[in-house]
C-alpha cells in the first residue's frame, strides 16, 4: 500500500476533509484521519505482515477435542488491533466508537489487508456483523452482542450458505422454531452452514453468528428468510440491556453449535473457514438440544437485513482484492528495479552489462497494467466508501436517495472488477519475478492464491453480473443507469474543459458510456430475461472497464497542473488505461448488442 | 482427456494414418497407434492420477544426507512407464524404440499430463534430453547416455538457467575447462544452475544433465556457449560404444554435482526443482574436484543444439498446459451436470426445484470457453507435432524447409497460447465449482496452480513474444509470415467453399490474418526494434487468437456433414470462438498498428 497514493486520493481527489463539516464527523480533522492511517500502517507492518506467510504454511488445525488451533501470532495481532479501538473505528461514540468516516476507516483497512488478508478477515467480518446489528438489532441485542464485538472480546460471522445452497439463498433449509420461555424473540435453530469464515476459533471468548433460517410456515423462497443471532456461547442471563444486566454481557453456557470441519483452501489459509452444525444436540443450552438464536427485527425480513451487511461486505471484498493487487504491484516493482536481466532490443554488444528488468518494455507494460488496475480499483473502493458516508449523513432525502442509488449501481462493480483485475495484477507480478515469483520464497504467489477467492465469495462474479444488469441497471425505471451516466458525463465535461490529454480521454469515456446505455436498452428491448441476461457477466466486465476509465479521468483531473514523478505516474497509468484497456469493451459491447444466443441455444449434451 | 476427441483430431482431421505410408512408420497402423493410446490411458488412470494430490501435498524433501525423498507412488508409476517402453516410443528401432510418429507419442502424453503433470515431468524431460543427444551426440555418447535413458534406468535434465541469468542465456557463467587425460571431449565444469527440474532424486540410478557452459576464451554472449553432458555418476570406464565396452553403460563414481536445495513452488510440487552446484569439490571424480562433463558436438554451438531440445520442449510445455486445461474442463463439466443450484431467469415460483448448474447461461459460457480453449489448443499441439513428423520424414528439401519454417513460426504460439488460455480455463473451472473449486478437496485448484508455471518456464511469455515478432515473423525476409498466411488462407478457401457457418468464419479469419500481416509490416516499417517490439507480448496474443481461430475452422471442416452431439459440440465451440474470442484481436491490432509508445516513453521513476 502507498501512503502517498492514499493521501492523494483522500485529500487531493475526494477532499474528505469536507466531511468534517457534517455533524457526525465534526470532532474530526485531517490530523485525526492521518493518525488513524499512520497507526494502521505501523500496526499492519509490525504485527500483521510478519506472519502472513507463516499462517499460510501453518493452517488452522482442528484438535481432537473439536477446538481450533491457530498460530499465536494471529491472536497477538488481533488483540492489538482491538485494543487500538480499530474495530469500533467508524461506530457511534455512544457505542465506544470513533465516528470515523467510512472512507477513512476503509483506507485504514487497506494496510491490514495488504499485510495479511487472512488475519484481518476476522475483525472485518466482525465489523460487518456489528454494523448490521447496530442498525437492525434491538437495544438489548446491541448491548449484548455489539458492544462485546466492538471491544474485540467477541468476534462475529455471517452464516448464509448451506452445503446444498451456495449462491441460491432461496433454498436455505436451516429451521428456526420458537423456543419455550419468557424471551419473545428466542428460537431454536437446526441446520448446516457452509463456508463460514471465522466460524470457530479460540481467538475470542465468544463468536456471534448471524444466521439465515426459515420459521415453519414462512413463505417459499427468499421472502421466507429470517435472520437470527446465534452465539457460540449463550449470553449469561439472556439478552438484555447493560442497564438491566448491570454491566457488560458475559458468555454463559455453550450453545448447540458444533464445528464439523475446516475447509482447506488454495489461499486465505489463515482464516478458519468452517462447516457448522446447528442444533444437532451435542450441547443442550437451557437443558435441551437446539441452537439458541435470537430473531433480529421482524420475521421473513432477514434477507433485507443481511443485505445491509452484504453490500458493505461486497465493497470490502473488492477492497481486499485491491490491497492484494497493490501489494503485488509494489513487490514486483521493487524487484524490477533491482534485478538485472538481459539487454535492450537492438543492443548488439553481448559484453554490455545487463540492464534492470524495468528497462524492458514488456516488464514496464506489466508494471503499468498492475498500477492501472490497483490504483483504479482503489479509487473506486474509496469513492464508494465516501458514498456510504454521504448516504449516512445526507442533508435531505433527495441527496440520500441519490447516493443510495449510485452506491447500489456501483456495488457489484466495486466487488467484481477488483476481484478480476487485481487477481490479474497478481498474475503479472508473478510474471515479472519469473521463476522466483512462482516460488513460495517470495510473496506474490500467495497474493495470487489469496486473491483467487474474491471472484467467488460474497456473491460470485456471475451473481454480480445478474445483480447489475438484471436489477441495478433497470430498477426505478432505469434510474440507476441514468444517474451513473450523468455522473460520468459530469466528469467527462470537466475533462473536455481541461483540454489536452484529459479532453481526449473524456471523449472516449463519453462514447463508451453512451454505448453502454444504448446496449442496455437493446438487451432489455423485449423484456426476455433469458436472452437479456445470457451474457450478464460480460456486461459486468464492460461496465466495470467504463467505470474504472471514469476513475482514471477523475484521478487525471485531480493531478492536473501538478508536477513530479507521482503525478506523471498518474497520467501514465490513465494513458495506459485508455490506450490498452478501455478498447477491450468494444468487442464486448458488440457481442451484447447482438443479443448473442450462443449459450442460450446450446444443448448441454454438446458439451 | 477425451478418447473421442483425440480420435477425431488424429484420424478424422489430421489423418495420421497416412503417415504409415512413410518408410519410417511403415510398420505402424491405426491399430498400433490405438494400442499405445489405450495403454497410455490405462496406465495414466491407474498409476499416475491416483497420487496427483498426494504428491502435491507431500513435496519432495531433502534428507540431512543431501538425498531426495519422494513418495513411493512416483517411482512405481515411472518404473511401469519405462517398462512399457514409453520413453523410447518415438525413437529409432535401432535404439530400442517403437518409431512412433511424434504426433501419436504426443497424444499419448496428454493422458499422463492430465493425470499427473508432476510425475510425468521426469520422463518427458528425459525424452527431450535423449532426443537432443540422439541427434547431436557421438555414437559413444549415444550408447553411454541415450540407451540407459530410453530404458528408464537413467533420467535426464536440461540445465540452462543460472541464479543471476534466467531468460538471458548470454550471461551464463558456468565454466568448462579441458580435463587432463586421454578423452578428448572431457571437461571439468564449475558453476551454479537454477530451476533444474528433476535435478536430483533417487528414482533412477543416474541422472544425465545437459549443461550450457562457456570454455575460457570463447566469444561473449550466446555465441560462446557450449553444451556438455554432466552425469550425476561418471560412467564406469568413461564414454564408449557398447561394443567397445562389451555391454550396457553402468554408473561409476560420483561426479562433483551437488544438490544445494529444492525450490518450493506454488504448483508442480511433485517434480523436484533444484539448485545444483557443479564442481565445488564436494566429490573428486578421478581423484580431483570439478564436475566431469563431455562436450556435445562442437564447442560454441551449444545453444543451437539446445534449441533442438528447446523447441520440442516448448511445444511440450504448451501441450502440458492443454492437458491441464482439458482436465479442468471435464471436471467442471461433470460437476455442472450433477450439481443443482438456483433457477432460470424469469422463474417466479420459488418452490420450483433447482436446476442443474449447466442450465445457467453463464455456466454454459464458462464451460464452452474452456472447451474452446482446451480443444483449440489441443488441435494446435497435435498439428505442430505432425509437422515434426513431416519435417523428419520429408520427401525432399522443399517439403522439409516448408514444414520447418511453419513449425518455427508456430512454436512460440504453441508454447504460449495454451499457457495463457488453458490457465484461464482452469480459473473458469474453479469458478464453475464455486467455493468447492477453491478447496483442496477438488482437483481444479491444483490444475490452476500447476498450470501457472507454464507461462514462465522454457522461455517466458515475453520471450515468446520477442521470438515471434522479433525473429520468426521476419526471418528469411518475412517468409514465415507469408507461409503462415498462405496456409491459413488455404483453410479459409475451403471454408468459403463449404458455405454456411464455415464460410462466415472463413471470412472473419481471412480478415484477421490479413490485418495481422499488415500490422506486422507497419511495426517493422522503419526497423526501430525498440518500438516494433514494445508490445510484442500483445502481438503474440493476437497472433495466437488468429491461429486458434484457424484451428477451429479446421475442426469445423473436419466435422462437416457429420451428425451427433460430439460434432454439434465442435460446431458450438467454433461458434463461441468466432463470436467471443476472435474479436478480442481488434483492439490489440489497433494498438499495435498505432505503434504505441506508452511503455517506451515511460520514465521508470513514474512507476
Structure description:
The structure is a homodimer of 607-residue chains. With 607 residues, the first copy, chain A, is α+β, with helices and mostly antiparallel strands. The first copy, chain A, folds into 3 domains: 3-300, Butyryl-CoA Dehydrogenase, subunit A, domain 2 (Beta Barrel); 301-459, Butyryl-CoA Dehydrogenase, subunit A, domain 3; 460-598. The first copy, chain A, is built from 19 helices and 12 strands. In chain A, strands 3, 4, 5, 6, 7, 10, 11 and 12 form an 8-stranded mixed sheet that branches. In chain A, strands 1-2 form a two-stranded antiparallel sheet. In chain A, a hairpin with a 7-residue loop joins strand 4 and strand 5. In chain A, helix 15 runs antiparallel to helix 17. The model of chain A has no long low-confidence stretch (mean pLDDT 96). Chains A and B meet through helix 10, helix 11, helix 12, helix 13 and helix 16 of A and helix 10, helix 11, helix 12, helix 13 and helix 16 of B.
- Beta-strand content of chain A: 5-15%
Number-wise, the strands of chain A total: 12
Largest sheet of chain A: 8 strands, mixed
The second-level CATH architecture of the largest domain in chain A is Beta Barrel
Largest interface: A-B, 101 and 101 residues
Mean pLDDT of chain A: 96
Structural category of chain A is: alpha+beta
Rounded radius of gyration of chain A (Å)? 25 Å
CATH class of the largest domain in chain A: Mainly Beta
The backbone outline of chain A, from C-alpha atoms, is globular
* Whole-number total of structural domains of chain A: 3
Query: Number of helical segments of chain A?
Result: 19
